Amino acid sequence: xxxxxxxxIPAEVKQAQFExxxxxNRLRREFQRKVHNPYVQGLVEDPAVLRWSNARAxxxxxxxxxxxxxxxxxxxxxxxxxxxxxxxxxxxxxREHNYATGVQKRPHTLLSG
Length: 113
Known about the structure:
Blueprint: H1 11-35, H2 47-57, H3 59-62, H4 67-77, H5 79-101
């Protein structure tokens, strides 16, 4: 026999999910009513946008340095310049070796004379 949706979930969990869904729907209806009201006199503020902007404004007050954030900061700040230095130095050494062994001729530029 096919099982129905929600089998095996305790009644307390179902009740809590139902209550949260009711709260979300009530907030959604209230916000839609405010947005579509033609007689509104002020600004209709979205609470989610307010929470997001507040979190962005106060991010440094709640930041905590952990080994993970320290490693990511090191990787993002120090990693790219070191990687570019290694890449360019390897390429330069390879070209100089090719010039010295005669595999490749040095290109003529206006400044080389």
